[in-house]
Amino acid sequence: xxxxxxxxxxxxxxxxxxxxxxREFPSERLEGLIIGGGDDIGADLYGxxxxxxxxxxxxxxxxxxxxxxxxxxxxLPVLGICRGAQMMNVFFCxxxxxxxxxxxxxKTNIRTVLARKIVSVKQNTKMRDILGQxxxxxxxxxxxxxxxxxxGLSISACDQGDFVQALEHxxxxxxxxxxxxxEFLVFDKHQQALFRALIENALHGDKVDTxxxxxxxxxxx
Length: 221
Known about the structure:
The chain is α+β, with helices and mostly antiparallel strands and about 220 residues long. It contains six helices and nine strands. The chain has a seven-stranded mixed sheet, with helices on both faces. Strands 3-6 form a two-stranded antiparallel ribbon. Strand 1 (about 35), helix 2 (about 60-70) and strand 2 form a beta-alpha-beta unit.
C-alpha cells in the first residue's frame, strides 16, 4: 500500500515522507498530509460497538489524531483515504458504522480493488471540481463507514447504498476524504487528480516547521 501512495504522490510532483508510531518524526517541513488506509479505528474513539474479530492499531490512531490537531490550525491540505476519511470524521466528533457487512443496504458488500462500485458525486463540492465527473466507478475495500457526520464536514459523494463515499470541510482550504483507494486506480486520470489537487494546494500554501510537533511527539507511541 505504501508503494502506491508513494507512486501517486511522485506522479503528482510531490515527495512522500512516511510517518509511523515509534519512529522519530522527520525533520522535513510539512506541506500537506495524507492519512491512508489500514486497520480499523478503535471503537472507543467514536463510541462504537467493539468487534473482537477485527484488527485495530491504537498507536496509529493516537498518531493520526495528533497529526490532525497539529495541521488543522495551519490549514495544511489534507487528503484522507479509506480509514483516513473515517479518521477525519472521528476527529471532528463524527461516528462510524463499526461493520457494514451485514447491513441490508444495496450493494453494501462489494469488496474489490477494481473500479466496480458506482458513486455519485454531489454538485458544488471540491470533490466534483477535482474529479470532473458526476458519476465515478471506484474500488471498495472497507467494512467500516461514516455514520454521523463530524462538525463542519459535508458529504460530497455517496454510493448506491447511501453510504458516505467522500467528505470535505467547507471552511478549510483542502480537507477532503474518500472512502475508496484512488492510489490503486493508477490508470484513471480522474482519480489521480486527487493527488494533483493535494500537491497543488501544498505548493501554493505555507510550509510548516515540524519542530514543535517533534518536541511533543513521543517515539514511544
